[in-house]
From TrEMBL, chain A:
One of its GO terms (molecular function) is transmembrane transporter activity. Keywords: Cell membrane, Membrane, Transmembrane, Transmembrane helix, Transport. CDD domains: EcfT. Transmembrane (T) component of an energy-coupling factor (ECF) ABC-transporter complex. Unlike classic ABC transporters this ECF transporter provides the energy necessary to transport a number of different substrates. It is found in: Cell membrane. Belongs to the energy-coupling factor EcfT family. It comes from Planococcus citreus. The lineage of its organism: Bacteria, Bacillati, Bacillota, Bacilli, Bacillales. GO terms for cellular component: plasma membrane. It comes from the Bacteria. It holds the Pfam family CbiQ. The gene is ecfT. Forms a stable energy-coupling factor (ECF) transporter complex composed of 2 membrane-embedded substrate-binding proteins (S component), 2 ATP-binding proteins (A component) and 2 transmembrane proteins (T component). This is Energy-coupling factor transporter transmembrane protein EcfT.
TrEMBL record, chain B:
It holds the Pfam family ABC_tran. Gene3D superfamilies: P-loop containing nucleotide triphosphate hydrolases. One of its GO terms (molecular function) is ATP hydrolysis activity. Residues 6-243 form the ABC transporter domain. This is Energy-coupling factor transport system ATP-binding protein. InterPro entries: AAA+_ATPase, ABC_transporter-like_ATP-bd, ABC_transporter-like_CS, ABC_transpr_CbiO/EcfA_su, ECF_ABC_transporter_ATP-bd, EcfA_1, P-loop_NTPase. CDD domains: ABC_cobalt_CbiO_domain1. GO terms for cellular component: ATP-binding cassette (ABC) transporter complex. It comes from Planococcus citreus. Belongs to the ABC transporter superfamily. It comes from the Bacteria. Its main location: membrane. The lineage of its organism: Bacteria, Bacillati, Bacillota, Bacilli, Bacillales.
Length: 265, 282
């Protein structure tokens, strides 16, 4: 199950989207989230959907892969769809099943909201699928740069994020080891009623916590010895370069927003 | 001997200064390391080895005595200057890997010291080449073996072009192959650049490669000398909980059994040499 999930996963590739500057991609997605709310009729929602599919195409991610990976999201989408379908009143009465009346407006709203949802999930997934976590961190650090003025610890936040990302596989391995060790001692984690299973997780979590703290201490020492003194006077090994394509992609988005504005009712 | 890189002058350190019943972790310790030397600091658990390491890089300050490094006396002010001239590799390969990939990790100390980007790129490659990890630039730490991770850590230390490289139990968590990789890397580095190395270890086989060995026990310096001199006092070492290298124990036992051994062979290779020359001259 975990293998199919694509939230936060990065698929290395060589598409136009992959090569964009992470800053451009993050800005793009944030602006896009705002722009989505311009759409308010059939034409604009169709344009929205078309634009998203074009982005998927440009990122060279297979649509099937994307849909397959976002299955849990579709359940949520279906839920909101039916919620609107059953509870929004207005327009002509289409049909009624028992005590539930379905109106024209409800159907419209249901479809629109679902598209909005789909488009947002697709776009954010494209961001994480085409950008390595470390690049996203770099991008966020630079984009949040201005907030240093108001004492936001931008550099520290970015470093924390990159270290957490770097330790995920290490801690996963460790969890596997502890799990096996506990199983060898007769603990049964995979079966029994929920309550028992939750209880069985405790002997897994405690050793994991202990070792995570130990690691944190070691890491802090290693960082200090290697001269880490916070963000002041630090240079960056990873350089971001903003190219013409990045400017173009944001211009494209502005044009797209104009188009939506023109067609909205 | 050229200049002195690091020296301890009558250093005493205790973790509980108020409590007189607690024995100091390091007491009245003096030693120095000259430029270009390879010194091994050996001792059993609790002998004060790791405290010494922490005193060297300014994580701890002694209650008595002074620690001098690169001609500077260790203090809050000189701390960062000293740290930028010494590289340190720790025991756990995972817990000292800061960057997301090999090259990021090697660049970490350079970033901290404000080295410009162009210079960083050059130095990262150069130091990875020195430890033969240049093909792994973009690898993530969980795809590397323990030995490889330690070599990356060495590269990370070398990138700063330090005058002293300290290995704090750097091989103790590795499998035999990883250990060999790391020791071999250090040996080659020493041959190529004459780097000063201090290895803190309880592995006497590693210590046997050093120019000079310091033996610590219960916070005191017990012995000091060349590996030959130190290892010849076999029993004392065993009493301190240190195991002689296999080749030396073997030679000792052979001697007891009446085979005329010189007792100078410290590595397996030397032992084999001695044995076959003895056998063919018989």
């Amino acid at each position: 199950m975990m293998e199919k999930m694509i939230f936060g996963r990065f698929i290395p590739g060589d598409s136009v989207v992959h090569r964009l500057d992470p800053r451009a991609k993050i800005l793009f997605v944030f602006l896009f989230i705002a722009i989505v709310f311009i759409a308010n009729n059939a034409i604009t929602y169709a344009i929205l959907l078309g634009f998203t599919l074009l982005s998927v195409f440009l990122s060279k991610i297979r649509l099937y892969f994307l849909i397959n990976g976002l299955k849990p999201v579709f359940i949520l989408m279906a839920f909101t769809f039916f919620l609107h379908l059953f509870f929004t009143e207005g327009g002509a009465l289409l049909f009624s099943v028992g005590f539930v009346d379905v109106y024209e407006e409800g159907l419209r709203q249901g479809i629109f909201i679902s598209i909005r949802f789909l488009v947002l999930v697709f776009m954010t997934s494209i961001l994480t699928l085409t950008t390595s976590p470390i690049s996203i961190t770099d991008g966020i650090e630079v984009l949040l740069g201005p907030f240093k003025r108001v004492k936001l610890p931008v550099h520290e936040l970015a470093l924390m994020m990159s270290i957490s990302l770097r330790f995920i596989p290490t801690l996963m391995d460790e969890t596997g080891k502890i799990l096996k060790a506990q199983m060898a001692r007769g603990s049964d984690i995979g079966s029994g009623p929920i309550k028992e299973r939750i209880k069985a997780v405790v002997p897994l979590l405690i050793p994991l916590f202990v070792s995570a703290f130990k690691r944190a201490e070691d890491l802090a020492t290693a960082m200090e010895v290697r001269g880490y003194r916070g963000g002041e006077g630090r240079t960056r090994y990873r350089q971001l370069n903003w190219r013409i394509m990045d400017t173009l992609s944001l211009l494209l988005l502005v044009g797209f927003a104009g188009l939506l504005w023109y067609f909205r009712s | 001997m050229k200049g002195t890189i690091l020296s301890f002058e009558q250093v005493t350190f205790t973790y509980a200064p108020e409590d007189k019943s607690v024995k100091p972790a390091v007491s009245d310790l003096s030693f120095s390391i000259g430029e270009g030397e390879w010194v091994a600091l050996v001792g059993h658990n609790g002998s004060g080895k790791s405290t010494i390491a922490k005193l060297m890089n300014g994580l701890l300050f002694p209650q008595q005595g002074t620690v001098k490094a690169m001609g500077l006396t260790m203090s809050e002010e000189s701390l960062w200057d000293i740290r930028s001239q010494m590289g340190m590799v720790f025991q756990n390969p995972d817990n000292q890997f800061v960057g997301a990939t090999v090259q990021d990790d090697v660049a970490f100390a350079l970033e901290n010291n404000g080295v410009p980007h162009e210079e960083m790129v050059v130095r990262v490659r150069e130091s990875l080449q020195q430890v033969k990890m240049a093909d792994y630039l973009d690898h993530e730490p969980h795809h590397l073996s323990g030995g490889q991770k330690q070599r990356v850590a060495i590269a990370g230390a070398l990138a700063l072009r330090p005058r002293l490289l300290i290995l704090d139990e750097a091989t103790s968590m590795l499998d035999p192959q990883g250990r060999r990789e790391v020791i071999e890397t250090i040996r080659e580095l020493r041959e190529a650049t004459g780097l000063t190395v201090l290895s803190i270890t309880h592995d006497l086989e590693e210590a046997a490669l050093a120019d000079r060995v310091l033996v610590m026990s219960a916070g005191h310096k017990q012995m000091e000398g060349t590996p030959d001199e130190v290892f010849s006092s076999g029993e004392e070492l065993t009493e301190m909980g240190l195991d002689l290298p296999f080749a030396m124990r073997m030679a000792g036992l052979l001697k007891q059994a009446g085979v005329p051994m010189t007792g100078e062979s410290m590595t397996e290779h030397e032992l084999v040499e001695e044995l076959w020359t003895y056998y063919s001259s018989k």
